[in-house]
Design brief:
- The chain is an all-alpha fold and about 325 residues long.
- It has one domain: Farnesyl Diphosphate Synthase, CATH 1.10.600.10.
- Helix content is about 70%, strand content about 0%.
- Strands 1-2 form a two-stranded antiparallel ribbon.
- The longest helix has 28 residues.
- The N terminus is likely disordered.
- It binds 3-methylbut-3-enyl trihydrogen diphosphate (IPE) (2 copies) and magnesium ion (2 copies).
- One magnesium ion binds next to helix 4.
- It comes from Planobispora takensis.
- One of its GO terms (molecular function) is metal ion binding.
Length: about 325
């Protein structure tokens, strides 16, 4: 297993190698064409604005890195599969923002803020369905099936989270199961669809996806609005009891239990966040995610391609380190 003594701090720096950046440029062109391919200009404007607004492109990068790792090259089908994965992700964010009633995403106004709930519903549908159609016509039946199965899981994960809102009986295991479906499933599939042998990377993708969402949940509790570029405490405000929160309540923050099961005032949210930041939840969650990063890398097949190896071995722990740098205090 290659060891990388010097590794960039920022996850996105890892994606800057020549093959991956060229591949990501091709994905960008494909993604732009797909998200603006409706007969209706208003749909193109809304979908195109969200995909053009950026985002880290982590999922398509995983597809490209997996293709390089397992096949040594990035072909047309890989580019389409990567664009489909990103378009499904972006469509699911349009739906997520509708469910969360969020006003801003990727630095621009959300589709729900711009066009209302009905508009966001159908624009998100368009993006997801368009991705699936492109996969069906330009990749393979296996890839299209994997994407459709992931959409089912994603919907189930989001539904579970919604069904558990303000449920004081939600357990850390319930929260993790929702994370596995709503987020880790698409990370896993981003790897699987890259190559006929992509299944070999399924465990890696899933573990990386788990740590990615758990860190996002932690930052919502323990970062600052300035560092994140969005308000903190959103999950608590909306009644989403995340894995880090439920773990803390089950350990040294038993005194926070009376704050569960009901809507909180802004003052109460401030109290809960301050209490969590002074608890072991931050270190415990970072440790848990370090474990997942190690498990992800341990699940990798042997990767000979140097650029792919640097990305796949480096990304999980770079993501943990980057999140740590965003924590308050
Ligand atoms: C946001 O995903 C949703 C989560 C799974 C936390 P990303 O953080 O990858 O969003 P973009 O693509 O960079 O905008
Ligand atoms: C991400 O969940 C949504 C999906 C995985 C579909 P979050 O609700 O935690 O993501 P943010 O915080 O809005 O980006
Ligand atoms: Mg959200
Ligand atoms: Mg959500």
């Amino acid at each position: 297993m290659p060891v990388h003594a010097t590794r960039p701090q920022h996850p996105e720096e890892l994606l800057a190698g020549p093959a991956l950046s060229e591949g990501l440029r091709r994905v960008e062109r494909r993604l732009n064409r797909l998200s603006t391919s409706s007969r209706l200009p208003l749909i193109n404007r809304a979908a195109g604005r969200i995909t053009a607004a950026g985002g880290k492109r982590l999922r398509p990068a995983l597809t490209l890195a997996t293709a390089l790792a397992l096949g040594g090259r990035i072909d047309r089908r890989t580019v389409t599969a990567a664009a489909c994965v990103e378009l499904i992700h972006a469509g699911s964010l349009v739906h997520d923002d509708l469910m969360d009633n969020a006003a801003e995403r990727r630095g621009v106004r959300t589709v729900n803020a711009e066009l209302g709930g009905g508009g966001a519903l159908v624009v998100g549908d368009f993006m997801v369905a368009r991705a699936w159609l492109a996969a069906l016509s330009s990749t393979s039946r296996t890839v299209a099936e994997a994407l459709a199965a992931t959409l089912v899981e994603l919907a189930e994960g989001q539904f579970q989270e919604t069904a558990d809102l303000f449920d004081a009986g939600r357990t850390p295991a319930d929260a993790l199961e929702s994370v596995r479906r709503k987020t880790a499933s698409l990370f896993r599939t981003s790897c699987v669809v890259a190559h006929p042998d992509g299944r070999a990377m399924a465990e890696y993708g899933e573990r990386y996806g788990m740590l990615f969402q758990v860190l996002d949940d932690l930052l919502d509790l323990a970062s600052t609005a300035e560092r994140l570029g969005k308000p903190v405490g959103n999950d608590l405000r909306q009644g989403v009891y995340s894995f880090p929160l439920l773990t803390a309540v089950g350990r040294d923050c038993e005194d926070l239990r009376p704050f569960l099961g009901r809507r909180l005032t802004e003052e109460e949210i401030t109290v809960v966040l301050a209490r969590l930041r002074n608890s072991s939840v931050v270190d415990d969650t970072i440790e848990y995610c370090r474990g997942l990063a190690a498990d992800a890398v341990a699940a990798l097949p042997v990767v000979d391609h140097p650029e792919a190896a640097a990305v796949l071995y480096g990304l999980p722990i770079a993501t943990v380190d980057h999140a740590r740098a965003l924590l308050a205090g």
